[in-house]
Amino acid sequence: MRILRSSDAPALAAAYVRNREYLSPWEPVRPEEYYTEAWQASDIANRLVAVKSGEGYPLGLFADDTLVGRFNVAGIVRGPFQSAGLGYWVDTSYAGRGLASAAVQLIVETARDELRLHRIEASTLLHNAGSQRVLLKAGFRQIGMAPRYLQIAGEWQDHNLYQVVLHD
Q1: How many CA atoms, within 13 angstroms, populate the side-chain half-sphere of residue 154?
Q2: Is the dihedral of CA 10, 12, 18, 20 positive or negative?
Q3: Are 126 and 158 in contact, with CB atoms under 8 Å apart?
Q4: What pLDDT digit, counting tens, does each position of 16-47 carry?
Q5: Fewer C-beta neighbours within 10 Å, C or N terminus of the chain?
Q6: Residue-wise DSSP of 106-151
Q7: Which residues form a coiled coil (predicted)?
Q8: HSE of 40 in the Cβ direction (CA atoms, 13 Å)?
Q9: 74-108 burial by CB neighbour count: b if 16+ within 10 A, else e?
Q10: Domains detected in the chain
């Protein structure tokens, strides 16, 4: 796992194309352009600006040269909050192998030890048991439920809210 590079746009676009149907119940409705190298290159460029400012980290999970997962530590707020949000997915061909759990655990450790964050938050659809298991294994705890929290698959859907506190 590493920070995405501009040169990863073709691999990221290919991963989204390969996983389009698999990810569709869990993500917003995407425009057709989203699945192109040009869109992904632009998105990576924008996210790399956030890396430079310390506000986010777009991470790719790779098996050899194939991108098999995406993890985003985003919306980092410093000051008294010291918090960030986490989003992720793993390629359908690699799901269920513990890769997401290992990656999220590594992100938690890095956020605590290197980024010196106090807290990470994440949310899941109510019926996304797999993602909930990943978060719980990494030390997240459910802190509530937000009605109509995000527009996913074209509908405003309820989400369970999770957090992990990294420092006492």
Answers
A1: 2
A2: negative
A3: yes
A4: 999 999 999 999 999 999 999 999 999 999 99
A5: C
A6: HHHHHHHHTS--SEEEEEEETT-HHHHHHHHHTT-EEEEEEEEEEE
A7: none
A8: 22
A9: eebeeeeebbbbbebbbbeeebeeebbbebbeebb
A10: 2-165 (3.40.630.30)
Place of tokens 């990576």: 44
> pLDDT category, 167, cuts 50, 70, 90?
confident
| Dihedral sign of CA atoms 86, 36, 42, 28 in order | negative
Cα dihedral 5, 11, 17, 21, rounded to 10, equals -80
Question: Residue 8 is encoded by which pair of tokens?
Answer: 């990863």
Token look-up 């978060």 returns 135
